[in-house]
Amino acid sequence: MKTSVEVQVLQWFERALAQKPEHRKLWLADQDMDQGVRDRVLRLLDADQASGAFLEETAIAEEALPPEFPKVGERLGAYELLKPLESGGMGVVYLGRRADDVYDQQVAIKLVRPVHLLAAAEFRRQLISRFEDERSILARMSHPNVARILDGGSTTAGIPYLVMEYVDGVPLTDYCKANKLDVRARLALFAKVCDGVQEAHRHLIVHRDLKPDNVLVGENGEPRLLDFGIAKILEQEPLPTDGKRHTSLSAMTPAYASPEQVRQQALTTSSDVYSLGVMLYQLLAGVRPYELGGLRPSEAEAVVCDTLPDPMRKMLEKAALTEGERKARRAQLTPDLERIVAKAMHKESARRYGSAQELADDIRRYLDGQPVLAHPDSTAYRMGKFVRRHRLGVAAAAVALVAILGASAAALWQAELARRAADDTVRVNNFLMDVLKSSDPYNAGSEISLSQAVDEAAARVTAQFGDRPDLASRIRFALGYSMVSRNKLDVAERELGQALREARQAYGDDDTHTLAIRTRRRRSCGTSWLPWSHRASKPRPSTT
Fold first, then answer.
1. Mind giving me the DSSP string for 403-439?
2. Are 108 and 114 within 8 A, CB to CB?
3. What is d(CA 127, CA 507) in angstroms, rounded to the nearest whole number?
4. What does the DSSP 8-state code read for residue 332?
5. Is residue 232 a contact partner of residue 267, using CB atoms and an 8 Å limit?
6. Helix (H, G, I), strand (E, B) or coil at 508
7. Is the pLDDT of residue 526 over 60?
């Protein structure tokens, strides 16, 4: 399906309006288009400039308005026009009030932009069709974050209008800036915007022009989604034979449009998810991911469809922030937030969030300290999120765990000591059993005394306990004691000396066992150390 000349004129007109006023004609002269289309766009720009001041209350130029256009003070049905509020690409919005004395109510009344009434009959027909679509779309929705439609109709001259609830608020980005919201507050607010978009998606409605200016935030902090002028009800829009959906009047905003929308491909709710991602990027980084001003349509398409935006932390350098604000914002832009925005803005629609609700849920998971879907799952990631989410509980559990581990370690250490002591006892007992066996005539081949067996055992201590100086020193001490008792002082001195060296190696110089060996070795040649039976056999000195 070939785009009509009227649609082409309005497409180029809206793209020209997106440029700075002083650059519009120069920009238009640089574009590749039919000269007839260019001339008509220039006439529209001139007409727009002539009527551009009509929104200023103190300087409304009545002669700049078409004669059939409603004037301030006139009534449209039950409502009276009070003053102009704002002007968009296709329409203008007036503040109005209920004027039939049923009840007092301020409303927003949306009409066709006066300059468009100068267009051809086909274009006027498309405008009327758009207003009828918007009225039908808004009538299907009821949500606290979507502006409600109250009424609608046409003037006696056939100019369509919509009556909506009046939202006394400011655009989303302006609200965040004026109230100096930090990242967490911006995320909480934006999640409500996603809720409003999800309400539209629930009715199979694609907004197609999501941007901060279409979200007003009131004094109560509640955002309202506006301007469903180019929205489409998916179930009512058959796909053209060429596979492209030609957005009538091309009223989309390219800076927030999805790649498939820029390419005029089939749209789904995923296209709105992309636009939400761009808005979230702007809220967090302070600037949009792409700047398309002054670019040709083909260049803008290449940027949107093929260029990956810089990380938000990097783009903060371009934001109009104080150094303190920039530093604070950078500290709050975590890798999880980068991943959430990247998933919402993925070039491939199938790899974005499946819905605006999924995006809102992931934002709320992030705010709650839970793992987010945009992050590759792993045990370490989930554990880290759990710890940050339950810091006090984890700290208390850690203290308890340390206490339990400490008690367990002490018990294990005591058990190990007991086990080693038991093993040592078995090892010493086996050694002693070998000593006793050596005195058994059946085992030794001849009868030897226990004293001889003990003397022979002394020579076997090193072989049996060379790896355990602690046990060797104790056995040698016992053997040395036995040899002193049998008056074998030279051999006793040798065994006690070796026992002392082994005790120092095992326990150190100041251990009680080492000191006991040293003391008894020193006394080993004195009578005071000998057993009483040995001392009693010697003659007592005379007392005379």
1. HHHHHHHHHHHHHHHHHHHHHHHHHHHHHHHHHHHHT
2. no
3. 100
4. H
5. yes
6. coil
7. no
Rounded to whole angstroms, the Cα distance separating 464 from 471 reads: 10
The pair of structure tokens assigned to 333 is 């832009």
Averaged pLDDT for residues 328-348 = 94
Assess contact for 153 and 131: CB atoms under 8 A: no
What is the per-residue pLDDT for 536?
Answer: 40
- Provide the token pair at 36: 């007839």
Q: In this structure, what DSSP letter does residue 152 have? A: E
pLDDT score of 61: 40
d(CA 141, CA 104): 24
Check residue 40 and report its DSSP letter.
H
Is there a contact between 166 and 152 (Cβ–Cβ < 8 Å)? no
pLDDT in tens, 367-410: 998 888 887 645 555 555 555 655 676 677 677 777 777 777 77
Residues forming beta bridges with residue 115, ordered by sequence position: none
Neighbour count for residue 54 (Cβ, 10 Å) = 21
Question: What contacts 383, CB < 8 A, 6 or more positions away?
Answer: none
Q: Are 481 and 469 in contact (CB under 8 A)?
A: no
- Tell which residue, 286, 287, 375, 275, has the closest CA to residue 335: 375
Sign of CA pseudo-dihedral 276, 281, 286, 290:
negative
**What 3-state class would DSSP assign to 44?**
helix
Reference 475, options 444, 449, 506; nearest CA is 506
Q: How many CB atoms lie within 10 A of CB 256?
A: 26
> Which pLDDT score, from 0 to 100, does residue 404 have?
75
Give 394-402 contacts, CB < 8 A, sequence gap 24+. none
* Distance between CA atoms of residues 317 and 341, nearest Å: 18
Q: DSSP state, 57? A: G
DSSP string across 284-321: HHSS-S---TT--HHHHHHHHHHPPPPPHHHHGGGSS-
74-103 residue pLDDT tens? 888 889 999 988 766 567 888 999 988 777
Query: Cβ of 17: how many Cβ atoms within 10 Å?
Result: 14
Categorize the per-residue pLDDT at 249 as very low, low, confident or very high, splitting at 50, 70 and 90. very low
β-strand partners of 146: 225
Which tokens go with 151? 């009424």
Tokens of 325: 């604000």
Residue 280 backbone phi and psi in degrees, to 5? -65, -40
Least confident of 206-215, 295-304, 456-465, 515-524: 456-465
Nearest to 73 by CA among 24, 109, 35: 109
Cβ neighbors of 192 (< 8 A, separation 6 or more) are 145, 222, 223
What are the structure tokens assigned to 350, written together? 């199938």
Closest CA to 371 of 392, 393, 387, 357: 387
